[in-house]
Amino acid sequence: MSNLVSIPFKKSYEANIKDAVRQYIQDHTSSHPDALRHDIAEWEKLRRVASGSSVHVDRIQGILRYHAQLLRIQSKLPADIGLGVSYAPAFANASSLPITLNDLTFERASVLFNLAALYSQLGAAEDRSTVDGIKRAMAYFSNAAGLFAYLQSNVLPKFIPPANEFEAPLDLTKDSVEGLHHAMLAQAEECFWQKAKLDNMKNTIIAKLASSVAKHYGDSLESIRGASPTIKHLFPSNWLSYIEVKQYHFEAVAHYRMSLVEGEANRYGKELSFLSEALSAAKKAYDIARRGRVVQAVMRDVQGFLDVVQKDFTRAERDNDLIYHDYVPAGSSLTVIAPSHVAKPTVPRELENPGLVQDAPLFSELLGWGANEAINIYNDRKEKLVKDMVLDGAAEVKERANSKLRELHLPASLDALDQTVRLPPSLLRKAEEVRLEKGPERIESLMEDIQRIAGLDRKLLDEAMSILDDEAEEDENARAEGHVHRLPSHEANSDLMHKYERYHNVLTQAAESDESVRQKYDEWEPSIVELTWDEDRLERSVPSSTAVSGRASRETEVHRRALRVRLEQLDDIHRELENFVRRAQNLADADDIRARVVKFAAGFAQLAEVQPAAFEDILDDELAKYDKFLHGVAECGDRQQGLMEEIEYHNQLLLNSRKEDPSVKERERALQSLDLAYHKYREIVRNLEEGLNFYNELSKMLTQFRESCKMWSRERSQGLHTMIQSMEKISLQQRTPPPEPAASPPVLEPEPEPEGEPEPEPESESASELEEEEEEQPKPPPPPAPAPAPAPARAPKPRGLPSLTSGDWGFQEIPLAPGPPPAPAPVQTPRRSTRRQR
Fold first, then answer.
1. Where are the chain's structural domains?
2. Is the model's pTM score more than 0.85?
């Protein structure tokens, strides 16, 4: 088993080259995908050969051929063409997932990594028991180191991995590649050290070679352990242990060889010091090898060398203690063993000069990606320049002028002086509304409806008053006959009369409001009727403002002509701007720099990856032909600025001259009158609609009021009839004689009774009946009791029955018939605030 290590391959996966390349060519080039189907098939074939896992020297040329074609492909296509490339990490375990990136640079880096791994595996597999085997192994490891150096300097700077470290190939980072580079270079130096030992070279040379090997192993370990983000987890633990063991082992070898040099020179103290340093390093190497479980071949080398150093150290220490007694310097004071770097990284010639690969370049018909991208960049810059600086610049200059003209109402106000001025569109819309609504007819119809409903309301109120008058007349007749003992009608119906007065006042005020609306309509009727005319007739009715007469009009004409001249000059400037825009657009449409770019790109090496930045001078030179349009737009803007100041000045003079023109004032008054007539029409219609709603609501209230009057009058009449019947019944009872007694006992004079209250006398049958009738009627509240008066002397009661008119019969005054129930709460009269005279 070899005591050297090798690097495993990055496992590759199938890539759908055909679909991705065809889609890109169809979307981004002028070529047809079918014309390049042979190139696509050859690409797939080369990748299958380069992606094998066998370890044989013949595979080197297949990988170099594929890499050369990748360089040619990348000179024609960008790195991202939508082709997903998948590779597993080099030191992947069974659970590791492949990393997939849409990047041809990732494909190229992985191919070179696998070529370096192939060189390392070929070197580790060589039989180094012979000088030729050692030379071949040293060459393979030098090539592996050269591949990693080339990868680090030429490929990784162009590779931009994903920001997420879980999606990035960490074995292709700078630290990882540098660590592997030093490891391969260390093994190449180790092969040379082995050959030097077989050739029995001087101990000094062998010591320097061993120091060089230890230095490379140390650099490798430092790069891997100090990487950020960390990459230690990518490597197997025994792999890192192997590198560390080798570092200490060759440090021990270097010190041991120097001890031999010092022993031969009879410097026994230094000999012992070098042996002490060698023993310390050998022990470290042995401890790490034992714990790190390195391969048995390395373990045997370390253990065997430790035994040799231990034996020589014991001998030298004994001899110096017993015989030489030489001073033993500290290890830190010993001369540093300078490394002698013999092995050099070797880059295959096909990498340094891909042209040595004689295969026909793929996609030779396509224009190089850098050149094609330069053309796209030029077209984008050209379109942006024409749009932003010429087209938008000219539009901005024109918009500044148009905005100022709109503010000054030009040229509309100037055109109004040259032709018949039409009526304002807003006034025409208002007239159309009145015409479609048949304004005067609508107003007359509303007025008729209001008068009709107002008459009905007055009739309802009169009917209610007639009901109250009839009841009052009936009450007065009854009082004249002496049959009534109740409140007179004018007191009992006070609440109803109060409501009547309120409703009467409301109707009076409403009539006044109706009259004010009528007067308003009479005042504006002619103007409202004008709004119903057709457009031509309405325009003829409005005075024109374009008539020229008087000194003011002549002054207006002078300013009008001056303003017209400057507006024509402004139109000339705008035509120049439009001409610049048209010429710039025509030039941009015909502008094609492909021929010049292709000619310039032909001067580059065939496999050179040409970047768009190489064409910057051509792009700047071609864009310079648009400068004349930029200067033209800027010059027009400056001229327009001065002209707009003159236009504003002459427009102000024109306005001042127009202020005193009588025709303008007359037209303004006519237009204002028509506009005000429209608003008065809307106001009158609104007032009439509100009045109509008011009278409708009032009709409901007056109907309820009339019904309340009927109910009250009916209750009063019923009460009156009840009282009359009761009085007639009492009168009949008084005229009927009482029955004669059967026998009259002798009349005895009663003894005088003591003064005081008389005994109650039995009530007659008629009085009892009256009292029962009184109980059936609801009694009014009793009047307040009069102040007590001194009781008169009571005369002796005569014998026999009292007379019919005597109060001893117990007749009581018949109470009045109950009045009407309490009147309901006063009804709130609706307000007619909207019917006030306006």
1. 1-200+348-366, 371-733+814-838
2. no
